[in-house]
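*** Fold description ***
***
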Amino acid sequence: MTKAEVISEISDKTGIDKVIVSESVETFFKVLKTNMGKGENIYFRGFGSFILKKRARKIARNISKNTALVIDEHFIPKFKPSKLFSEKIKKSIPSDFVSKKDESED
């Protein structure tokens, strides 16, 4: 499902104009990025958390040039679903979903 499809579905279910829903979604993402960029985690009770995960300093290799690169310590965004959300998904997706998806890729 794409962002446009989500906006369309929200608009259909609420009766709010797509332009307003689109602005709201874009503003939500902007607030999320801005606050996580400041080092804040964002929590939605019953849904999940957008958290910052620390990656340690490491040495990587550029194989084509045979050189070592130092990648400094940094943070990456991560989504951690709530227990309630995870349980709902586990119960709603059929067990043969994975096998059907794998077959369609062949």
